[in-house]
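step 4 of 6: structure.
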Amino acid sequence: MLYSLKIALGQMDVIPGRPDLNAGTMLDMMARARQKKVQMIIFPEMAIPGYLLGDTWEQRAFLRDCQEYGRQIVESSGDLCVLFGNVGLDWNKTGDDGRVRKYNSFFVAQNGRLLGEDNFPYPFRIKTLHPNYREFDDTRHFYSLRKLSMDLGKSVGDLLQPVNLNVDGKALKLGCILCEDGWSDDYNLEPAKIINKNGPVDLFVNISSSPFTLGKNNKRNRVFSRQVRDSGIPLIYVNNVGIQNNGKTIYTFDGYSTVYNGKGEIVHYCEPFQQDLKILYLNQTGGLNNAKPVEVPDDSGIASIYQALIYGISKFVSFADIKRVVVGISGGIDSAVSACLYTRVLGSENVLLVNMPSIYNSRTTKDLAARLAGNLGCLYTVMPIQDSVDHTVDQITNNAVTNLKDGQQLKLTASSFVLENIQARDRSARLLAALAAAFGGGFTCNANKSEMTVGYSTLYGDLAGFLAALADLWKHQVYALAGFLNEQVYGHEVIPRDVINLVPSAELSFEQSVDKGKGDPVIYPYHDYLFRAFMEHWDRATPEEILDWYCRGVLEDKLGCRPGLVKKLFSCPAEFISDLERWWKLYTGMAVAKRIQAPPVLAVSRRAYGFDHREAQNGAYFTARYHLLKRRLLEPGSVG
Amino acid sequence: MLYSLKIALGQMDVIPGRPDLNAGTMLDMMARARQKKVQMIIFPEMAIPGYLLGDTWEQRAFLRDCQEYGRQIVESSGDLCVLFGNVGLDWNKTGDDGRVRKYNSFFVAQNGRLLGEDNFPYPFRIKTLHPNYREFDDTRHFYSLRKLSMDLGKSVGDLLQPVNLNVDGKALKLGCILCEDGWSDDYNLEPAKIINKNGPVDLFVNISSSPFTLGKNNKRNRVFSRQVRDSGIPLIYVNNVGIQNNGKTIYTFDGYSTVYNGKGEIVHYCEPFQQDLKILYLNQTGGLNNAKPVEVPDDSGIASIYQALIYGISKFVSFADIKRVVVGISGGIDSAVSACLYTRVLGSENVLLVNMPSIYNSRTTKDLAARLAGNLGCLYTVMPIQDSVDHTVDQITNNAVTNLKDGQQLKLTASSFVLENIQARDRSARLLAALAAAFGGGFTCNANKSEMTVGYSTLYGDLAGFLAALADLWKHQVYALAGFLNEQVYGHEVIPRDVINLVPSAELSFEQSVDKGKGDPVIYPYHDYLFRAFMEHWDRATPEEILDWYCRGVLEDKLGCRPGLVKKLFSCPAEFISDLERWWKLYTGMAVAKRIQAPPVLAVSRRAYGFDHREAQNGAYFTARYHLLKRRLLEPGSVG
């Protein structure tokens, strides 16, 4: 049939766990749409409850509320056709956990009632494919259409029916897609194709709650455009904005709601990271009146990282009611970038920068910290830690310990390693935490992903803070962000060039003197990429793959780091192996223990620490083939 | 058919993530069984890889190793029939995440080859029901028989076939059950019944990797005995021992492998928490020669908690290579119990107890700490924190902060709340952490579950440590454990009675003076049970249910606390409501933020913090009906 629709994309800021507030946003958008004579309004997946709620899904009282607020939306629909996501409930059935049956559902309401029950067991549509990778936990809470079809003794194909609509007297077959159902490449069935076969469909609508991942929007546009070209049927994608979290990992949602015409061209998209009620006239081929295809910005670069971080930080501090922060600045790159980001979000008058030198901190970095603070115009103070560190060392080494079995006394000693960690904890758990409390705010964790990966940080020390905003960025991305801040955000050198050029160092001993060009044991231009292979590669690389690539001379290519680097860094296979084993042991050993107690991580990459990368504290493992490759390589006479 | 079998139950200590070590244990047990002319040996579910591995399942090199070690077991089987769990791989297919297809599988090997391919697509059996509640994450990694049946266009019933065995010339139909497949009450199909219908089966074998939960063994025996009575077919249950973890939550595995005869009676069980190769003669009805049914100890009492904690702590310190620990002892109950447990595990010479008084600590508690240390005969020292706390307060309040925009100077002030947290952090992050490093060990977190629930603890303070061994015990369970330690473990008063009788207090201000009978704001005899309803009830209680129960006068009954308590504690509904809202806001608010950075929790209850109880940092929510009930209750003239 031929149609022409005035539609509204309800790219709303969904507040997780707040059906009351979300229903309020929806009713408000519906009222505005009605004034503009809109015929159909589309809200995201799980618009009412929010999506990432942990085990709040086990609270029956919460579920009843979601149902009730959903009912209010339906009741208020009038002649506006309202499409929205909510939890669908069947109080008479149970899920596989024995609790009340919950479906991740797509509701279509009009004239005060729900549509779609003419060809489906429920007055709502149900998600078929449940993502259960990365941060997603759909299978834990929701019953899928696949399971329902088995219960009913039907095929999935019998159940995947379009919803029959009538808009201003015109019949319309709607293909209702929930997020993952549009990403079916890895599954054994393609819901959209099946619905269309049971149609054909006039319009596909994909409602999603899809967290931002660097470059994901580019990929979605490729995947969805291709699908639309195949079917020839226009598609509207509506995603929410806001932030949601799984405790340890905090996700931003970019929205980027998009309209694809029947040729698979993008004719409209909503600005990312903004609540937006966009009203459009859609013709029968999915085109907009007089509208040409539009170009969508690339979302895989440093500008997107900056945008996601600023959005994530500002939403998170607003949620947590944190209006002021303390940032410990060392003169190094991570704390400098962190200071800039928080200053952008909260304003310089609400950011207290503090430099906390010990005897190991150089004049160089102390001056750089002061210059950065001056450039930002924040509140600033210098609070040395040496007296306190000396006191702690004195207390633990000069106080006798008594063995109460035999009355013997003993004294403890503090090695240089012990001393390094005392400094780090003194700064964070003693000073920053107290300062933040006195200042009436929180203090930040400035750790980056390279440090997080191998635990090159001190627990209760530099790994402490209310949020680890940079902990999903490799060190080279932190440098890129520093450049972006100076060049694009500020337009002048706010982060002193010398901070960027400085050798990265913790300055916890004279062995780490920046003035002598000494610093971190992590060689970022190589290790960033090695760690990324462990952590972010789809099929996780282990020492076995790394050594195999090394032997075959394809390592730099596989890792994506600079050619020639490996030969320059390691003079022989033994050195290479020793380095590899050192970091693998840390990554799967002590670093896991540290990450368990690390602050929440703001996610930007395709794999962030926390709930996205689930890990057990099991220690390092080297496969049998790794040992074989290693033996061969280290055998006298072998070729390295 | 009639049979008589000499079988071995391989209740092994499975080391998660170590297929090399686990295969070694299995080969050793197989050799011992062969010497004893055993015909069939049974190992647990996931005996080769371990079960709780996080996303290590995404490492192809690790999977290849599991397959190779499994092959070695098969190769070594000889005339011994070897039953074991491992990951089953189909390298030509993918799972729903697009990675290589993995099945949680049951392997039956004999004469160097795998059995069962005559009536199944693979030479191994596949788990049908995938637990995805509590700590379980099966659906994330493994492809279920339900999904496989849909792929093949078959019914689950077609695929659930017995494995046909031949032992010493006698044919035997084996019902192979993987853990959850024996717990099918909440699912829409019963694998064991279906296999039997496709048989009938001569013997059921359930291989499991089932973590200890207080009282779970009792429940399993009820459930399995009933099933066996229904079918009339004997059942052997084999579970592993050891510890495994999901990062934040550490589980002990009690083993408790059990033989049920055809009447559903238990004729044998292995001792819990011990690696054991038990060799038995099983006759055709599942009876043992001359064996009468045995009584299985109740596992829901304080003795089981003690056993699980000692086992868990000793396995965890051994894994982490922690030979010595520092325990901060305050003179209170939690640190006293913690000190006892670690002393039992490590020996008094490896436990350093330290009392760290400020001016707020009473003579009473300082003396109690010293008495406890004396009773235990540990290493002991007293290290006051007042000087350091004073220094910190001086540093943050007397150092000027400069506003670099206008050059103005300001000074911060430290409230009593700020001061309380400074003390807690000074003890843990400054002193205990430094002491532990100098002592060459770790320091313990002594927090209990009541504190964890509402965040009544300081981050980087008393919430720090390498393990929170008591964090799955409500305060009343900590008291019970103290009594058990004195009465059953030591047989005399090691924890001074005055520690048990003391009012619980953090002693962080004069407002919390134990000598004046003042202390914690948590009233454990009531709040323990309120918090348990939020946290452990199957259908989570929220303020709505609590208020409803309060109105209906059934609250104490529903919570399981002492009758009459609520009326005594709250003189009117307004007081009750204010208390309820206070704790709910903390439980779903600040306490979540604290738990994200808390140490790993040793699980004993049916719901532990961490991966078992997944939570988002979303803040408190009160349902519409809660607000309604509250309004009604607070209306003038309403009956409370």
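step 5 of 6: annotate
 - The CA atoms of residues 267 and 294 of chain B lie 5 Å apart.
 - Chain B touches chain A through 130 residues (CB under 8 Å).
step 6 of 6: archive
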